[in-house]
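Researcher: We plan to redesign the surface later, but first we want a full-length starting point. Tokens attached.
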């Protein structure tokens, strides 16, 4: 599986006892659903998340492997203990499928572990994990009701659609998982034909989420040279860190690419807006009638610039891919440090609501076993970010001073021209009886109007351009974060590395990332002043 793409993860839940006569119809239904997903989202590699339990899970796993779709196995308990629930051919099938899986691990508990947990508790935790770590949940189920504390298929569907469980730690409030229900008769109960498909959940919300994911994967197939590594070289293999690193690199490149497009569009709009004003003044004041054509051409150019900005989605992509990259940085660093906690659980609600596809991407990218060892993250996270914010603050200050000088000079020129116009009117324009108007006053007056109007317009549009870059806010944010990371480095020196400090570090980084995105969202490319 590609490590630089966000996979479309398909979870599985379903009845263990499937009537033999229903197997062909259900297999065809599963393959049909997987084929449709693959065709609708061709740039999203499909993976299947399952426990390989007897019945529905094994049926889906066989169908996936026949279609070349990788398996990720999340067991409810250790393999040796789990195998006690199999007998005869089902055990052999489990072992065969298990050996062909790309990843294998025991699903962590989401709810508080009781003093004497039974097997049903661990099956329930596995059901919660699968239902909340996939884009789509395949439910081979008769549609019957469940009970709140149980661990069956009905409960797994509820976990996916309603998040109806009690996490011991804060969990994402997302409910964008889609459920593809394949009707599966149970026992003597019949009803619809086996394999009849129903789609459950907020379909429009889910489609938007998947469209954004597909868009990112489609754009990520044209990478530039990789940026510097996110993490130091490591001796042990870790598929999740490889995945985080790969997607981070693509998100970082795409964000920089679209940031450049966005800023160029802003600059061109400022220039074109000034040209429109100057051309109209020449048409109106200097009676250069052909200037109306220049004005019209500039308006058309401005229209197409805004249209290009909208069609390319440069502003949205610049922000969203930056958020994705920085969120993955926090997730990768937490895992590198040995923390099992998923960074998505630290995301503020505003960010979950504004970019749910990113929250879901972080969730599915984090599917896998717990980190096997921890590393010192002082240099690659705390010190690295401290240096970044210190340098970024300096650059933002230079840009802010430069913008202030440019706007100040333009404003000063406007004031000088106004004073010149005022003196001219007092001395030569006939405003004062003592100084009668000269015959050529109107020509000079027109010239002053043209120059003053053009410079004033340029001042406004230049101010608008720099205002949309939010330089003063950037300086303030980088200064605050530099202080924060400086204190984190000091804390690491004095107290060492512990999980509470790492979670604080991850949470604050994600909050700062969300705040940055929030105030940047209003700065869309347009002609507004």
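Model: Full-length starting sequence:
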């Amino acid at each position: 599986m590609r490590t630089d793409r966000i996979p479309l993860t398909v979870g599985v839940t379903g009845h263990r006892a499937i009537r033999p006569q229903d197997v062909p119809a259900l297999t065809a239904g599963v393959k049909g659903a997987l084929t449709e997903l693959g065709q609708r989202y061709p740039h999203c590699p499909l993976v299947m998340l399952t426990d390989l339990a007897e019945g529905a899970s094994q049926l889906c796993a066989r169908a996936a492997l026949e279609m070349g779709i990788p398996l990720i196995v999340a067991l409810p308990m250790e393999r040796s203990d789990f195998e006690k629930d199999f007998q005869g051919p089902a055990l052999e099938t489990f072992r065969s499928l298990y050996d062909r899986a790309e990843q294998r691990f025991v699903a962590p508990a989401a709810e508080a572990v009781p003093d004497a947990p039974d097997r049903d508790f661990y099956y329930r935790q596995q059901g919660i994990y699968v239902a909340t770590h996939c884009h789509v949940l395949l439910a081979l189920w008769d549609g019957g009701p469940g009970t709140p504390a149980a661990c069956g298929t009905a409960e797994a569907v509820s976990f996916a659609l309603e998040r109806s469980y009690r996490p011991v730690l804060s969990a994402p409030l997302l409910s964008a998982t889609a459920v593809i229900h394949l009707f599966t008769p149970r026992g003597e109960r019949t009803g619809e034909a086996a394999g009849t498909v129903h789609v459950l959940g907020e379909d429009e919300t889910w489609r938007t989420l998947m469209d954004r994911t597909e868009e990112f994967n489609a754009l990520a197939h044209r990478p530039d040279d990789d940026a510097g590594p996110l993490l130091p070289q490591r001796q042990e293999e870790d598929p999740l860190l490889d995945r985080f690193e790969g997607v981070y690199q693509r998100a970082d490149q795409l964000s920089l690419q679209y940031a450049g497009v966005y800023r160029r569009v802003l600059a061109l709009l400022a220039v074109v807006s000034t040209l429109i004003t100057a051309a109209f003044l020449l048409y109106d004041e200097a009676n250069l009638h052909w200037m109306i054509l220049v004005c019209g051409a500039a308006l058309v150019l401005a229209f197409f610039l805004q249209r290009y900005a909208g069609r390319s989605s440069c502003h949205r992509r610049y922000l969203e891919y930056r958020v994705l990259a920085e969120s993955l940085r926090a997730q990768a660093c937490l895992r590198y440090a040995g923390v099992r906690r998923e960074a998505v659980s630290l995301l503020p609600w505003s960010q979950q609501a504004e970019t749910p596809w990113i929250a879901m991407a972080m969730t599915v990218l984090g599917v896998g076993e717990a980190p096997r060892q921890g590393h010192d993250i002082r240099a690659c996270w705390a010190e690295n970010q401290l240096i970044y914010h210190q340098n970024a603050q300096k650059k933002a200050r230079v840009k802010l001073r430069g913008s202030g000088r440019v706007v100040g000079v333009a404003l000063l020129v406007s004031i000088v021209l106004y004073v010149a116009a005022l003196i001219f009117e007092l001395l030569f324009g006939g405003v004062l009886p003592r100084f009668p108007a000269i015959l050529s006053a109107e020509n000079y007056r027109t010239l002053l109007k043209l120059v003053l109007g053009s410079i004033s317009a340029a001042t406004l549009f230049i101010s608008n351009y720099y205002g949309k870059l939010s330089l003063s806010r950037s300086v303030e944010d980088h200064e605050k974060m530099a202080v924060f990371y400086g204190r984190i480095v000091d804390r690491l020196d004095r107290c060492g590395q512990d999980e509470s400090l790492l979670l604080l570090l991850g949470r604050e980084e994600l909050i700062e990332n969300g705040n940055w995105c929030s105030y940047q969202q209003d700065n869309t490319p347009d002609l507004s002043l």
